[in-house]
């Protein structure tokens, strides 16, 4: 009974440590915010180091006791106790080795695990003391072993005490913190923060709903079948070595075990990723992987489009594009996790359990030690690779960004004869990338060498022990063959783990930017009680509006004005006076810092953004076009418009005849960003878009700035017809284009300095008249 109790405790102890560490670490990360660490880190580390030394000494004593004498009631010299000591040593040894990403810093989760370990060690020490005192003959080994048990209890207790009593006195729970100033400076987002497995789990949970085919029962059924086939593969992996042992035992002169060989061949045909089961499972998974990639990529693109203008103005296009292309990395991560990592761990566990139940427990100990050392070494060295890989990925994104900048600014590059400079800039980024890549590849070679040494050592020990038993008549050759077969079978999943863990690290590092995109939140969103704007009259009112982009420099100061429905307002002023910022506020690209904007008497914050913008047409200063046909770009403002409506809009913008003169007419390709069109043609296309949309409110930001005088006059007449009955707000530098407006507002350094009609402002001898006279000269 005592032996059964000891065996149970020895099995539960290391298992409980792993479970407690995983659960407590996850809970602590979810519920704490501050960097929490004891002040006496070196004391804690010394206690754990002494604990590991004590465990190693006890393992040596247990081996000596097992090899030199009968147990005689000494359960601490049994194989279960020895196995548990090895497992516990591995656990604590893994926690004290230096982390390549940060200095040693135990968390509250560590303290929880140490408390649990203290309880187990105390119970075992008391149990051992009672057994030692009951022995009829004590020797030095018994006394030393008991002292080592007491030392482990002391080390763990000191570790807990120093961890908690020397911790900083601050709240661990998320709470408010005091900040000074209006808006804090944004954090540096040049590179993503260092992440651990908890961050990866949390991020993966966030995107799991995006990659699981929840709307397709057929794909869900395929996924279930794939998992069942995965379980069948694990059973086949157990049967193959057993069947090989059957063949070896059946071999004899004059005997041919045909049936056993046929069964072995059939099992081999089913085994592995290239086997029948693996091929069927891979075939069934193809549409699931495609659906996963499609859903994740579409969700990331939709999320980026939903982010506010401040995000897009603050990010480089190349970096965002690079992050959006990483959907395949998460898809590959999911496949690797399900079909490589989990099966490998299952195969390792089944093999260890089989060896423990069937053969000498020392075989199980060798397999566990070899598997732990292999996996831990892979993970540990991969941390160094992950850090280097993260730097390489950052260099890769920078290289992509430089390429995108050069291609987007093609004309600027050639205008300034800067081709050589751009090539040199790109060559520098390539050089940075290759230096980072060299470090990654060097660490990969080191990892492969370490893995080979560990596996070779495990095979050598197993062969040596089995050969010793065969020579002593305790085992048969069939057992030797079965053991070698199992080890050979373990080599493949372990090698796969080395490559798949590296691949998973690479995929997660590559996908960090995409996951970071999902963490971005739009700053302009619909209020919970926002309503749709159904009937828009076009009455705009600004009440004491102020605005700042960064919370430090105010762009608009106390702007108050009213625009009646169907009237026209012109906003003029020097460059940087806040004209474009005013339009961005009216379009709700940003929220006001102070004051209020009302449309038809309703604050714009109480209207849904989509319904608000559907009633506004914009003619921007710089027209952006898609690399498609003219017809697509014009109809973009109203996809449901008929061809006749498109033609009418183009005629109103004096563009129809020009388009018909093109060889392909409305099907002419405009090129990347409309580079095949002139500035005036692009501007007229933008005006045609606004006309086709037929909104109640029209914003024009230098709508005719790129046109010649004759075309400008024709379009001004068209705009006058289009604007009739609609609220129109025009930003203009060329004052001759806004003399007909019902009201003109003059901005200077973000403040309204003058308001009136053209004739009224000229009579006032103010800022507007000075601008008019300068342009008239």
TrEMBL record:
Topology of the protein relative to the lipid bilayer: Multi-pass membrane protein
CDD domains: ABC_6TM_HMT1, ABCC_ATM1_transporter
Localization per Swiss-Prot or TrEMBL: Membrane
Domain of life: Eukaryota
Span of domain ABC transporter: 540-774
GO molecular function list: ABC-type transporter activity; ATP binding; ATP hydrolysis activity
A GO biological process held by the record: transition metal ion transport
Keywords: ATP-binding, Membrane, Nucleotide-binding, Transmembrane, Transmembrane helix, Transport
Pfam entry (one): ABC_tran
Residue stretches making up the ABC transmembrane type-1 domain: 224-506
Bilayer-spanning residue ranges: 12-32, 44-67, 79-97, 109-128, 140-165, 333-356, 362-382, 452-471, 477-497
Keyword check for Transmembrane helix: yes
GO CC term (a single one): vacuolar membrane
Family: Belongs to the ABC transporter superfamily. ABCB family. Heavy Metal importer (TC 3.A.1.210) subfamily.
Protein name in UniProt: ABC transporter domain-containing protein
Source organism of the structure: Penicilliopsis zonata CBS 506.65
């Amino acid at each position: 009974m005592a032996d059964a109790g000891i065996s149970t405790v020895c099995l539960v102890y290391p298992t409980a440590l792993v479970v407690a560490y995983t659960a407590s670490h996850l809970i602590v990360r979810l519920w704490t915010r501050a960097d929490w660490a004891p002040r006496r880190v070196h004391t804690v580390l010394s206690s754990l180091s002494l604990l590991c030394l004590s465990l190693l000494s006890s393992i040596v004593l247990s081996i000596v006791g097992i090899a030199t004498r009968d147990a005689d009631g000494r359960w601490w010299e049994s194989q279960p106790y020895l196995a548990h000591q090895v497992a516990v040593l591995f656990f604590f040894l893994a926690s004290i080795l230096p982390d390549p990403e940060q200095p040693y810093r135990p968390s509250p989760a560590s303290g929880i695990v140490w408390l649990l370990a203290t309880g187990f060690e105390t119970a075992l020490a008391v149990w051992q003391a009672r057994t030692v005192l009951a022995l009829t003959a004590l020797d030095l080994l018994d006394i030393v072993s008991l002292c080592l048990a007491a030392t482990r209890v002391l080390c763990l207790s000191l570790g807990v005490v120093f961890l908690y009593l020397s911790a900083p006195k601050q709240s661990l729970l998320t709470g408010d913190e005091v900040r000074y100033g209006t808006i804090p400076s944004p954090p540096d987002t040049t590179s993503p923060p260092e992440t651990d497995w908890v961050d990866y789990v949390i991020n993966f949970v966030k995107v799991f709903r995006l990659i699981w085919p929840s709307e397709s029962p057929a794909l869900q059924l395929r996924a279930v079948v794939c998992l069942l086939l995965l379980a069948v593969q694990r059973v086949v992996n157990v049967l193959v070595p057993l069947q090989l042992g059957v063949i070896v035992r059946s071999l004899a002169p004059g005997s041919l075990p045909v049936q056993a060989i046929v069964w072995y061949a059939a099992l081999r045909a089913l085994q592995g990723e290239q086997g029948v089961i693996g091929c069927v499972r891979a075939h069934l998974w193809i549409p699931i992987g495609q659906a996963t990639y499609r859903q994740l990529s579409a969700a990331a693109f939709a999320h980026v489009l939903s982010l506010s203008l401040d995000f897009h103005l603050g990010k480089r296009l190349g970096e965002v594009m690079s992050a959006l292309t990483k959907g395949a990395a998460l898809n590959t991560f999911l496949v690797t996790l399900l079909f490589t990592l989990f099966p490998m761990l299952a195969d390792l566990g089944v093999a260890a359990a089989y060896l423990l139940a069937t053969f000498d427990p020392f075989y199980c100990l060798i397999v566990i030690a070899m598997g732990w050392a292999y996996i831990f070494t892979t993970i540990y060295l991969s941390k160094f690779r992950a850090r280097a890989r993260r730097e390489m990925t950052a260099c890769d994104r920078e290289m992509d960004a430089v390429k995108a900048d050069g291609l987007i600014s093609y004309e600027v590059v050639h205008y300034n004869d800067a081709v050589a400079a751009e090539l040199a800039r790109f060559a520098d980024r390539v050089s940075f990338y290759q230096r980072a890549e060299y470090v990654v590849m060097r660490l990969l070679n080191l990892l492969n060498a370490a893995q080979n040494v560990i596996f070779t050592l495990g095979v050598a020990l197993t062969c040596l022990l089995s050969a010793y038993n065969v020579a002593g008549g305790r085992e048969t050759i069939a057992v030797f063959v079965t053991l070698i077969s199992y080890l050979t079978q373990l080599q493949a999943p372990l090698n796969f783990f080395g490559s798949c863990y590296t691949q998973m690290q690479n995929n997660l590092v590559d996908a960090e930017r995409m996951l970071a995109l999902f963490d971005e939140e739009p700053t302009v969103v619909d209020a919970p009680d926002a309503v749709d704007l159904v009937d828009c009259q076009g009455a705009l009112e600004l009440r004491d509006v102020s605005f700042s982009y960064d919370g430090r420099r105010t762009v608009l100061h106390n702007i108050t004005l009213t625009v009646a429905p169907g009237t026209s307002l012109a906003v003029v002023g020097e460059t940087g006076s806040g004209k474009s910022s005013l339009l961005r506020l009216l379009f709700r690209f940003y929220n006001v810092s102070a004051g209020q904007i009302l449309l038809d008497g309703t604050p714009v914050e109480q209207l849904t953004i989509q319904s608000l913008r559907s009633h506004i047409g914009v003619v921007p200063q710089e027209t952006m076009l898609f690399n498609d046909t003219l017809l697509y770009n014009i109809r973009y403002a109203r996809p449901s418009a008929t061809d006749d409506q498109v033609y009418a809009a183009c005629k109103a913008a004096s563009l129809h005849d020009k388009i018909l003169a093109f060889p392909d007419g409305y099907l002419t390709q405009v090129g990347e960003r409309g580079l095949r069109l002139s500035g005036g043609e692009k501007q007229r296309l933008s005006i045609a878009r606004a006309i086709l949309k037929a909104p109640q409110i029209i914003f024009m930001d230098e709508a005719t700035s790129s046109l010649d005088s004759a075309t400008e006059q024709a379009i001004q007449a068209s705009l006058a017809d289009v604007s009739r009955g609609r609220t129109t707000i025009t930003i203009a530098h060329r004052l001759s284009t806004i003399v007909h407006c019902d009201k003109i507002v003059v901005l200077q350094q973000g403040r309204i300095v003058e308001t009136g009609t053209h004739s009224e402002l000229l009579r006032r001898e103010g800022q507007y008249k000075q601008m008019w006279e300068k342009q008239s000269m």
